[in-house]
Known about the structure:
The chain is mainly alpha-helical and about 80 residues long. It is built from four helices and no strands.
Amino acid sequence: MTKSRVNQKIKIETIEAVSELLDQLEPKLKPKLSQDEKLFNLRHKIERVLRLGYSYGEITEVLKQQDINISTERLQRYLKDADD
């Protein structure tokens, strides 16, 4: 690793090139998400299937099949809190 100098002068062209490179970086995917992160990512789809007539219990069963273990009550609270 190179040592950085406190008052190092950097060319504008270098800054612009680095800026472009940083803009092109894709977000890194986390190998595992917390339960709240999983629900956050699925929230809009869960709300959509609720509007299609599915119950919270039916949705929690689908989630459990995918190793997302959450109670019906916790799911309802999470969605209510997300709207606040």
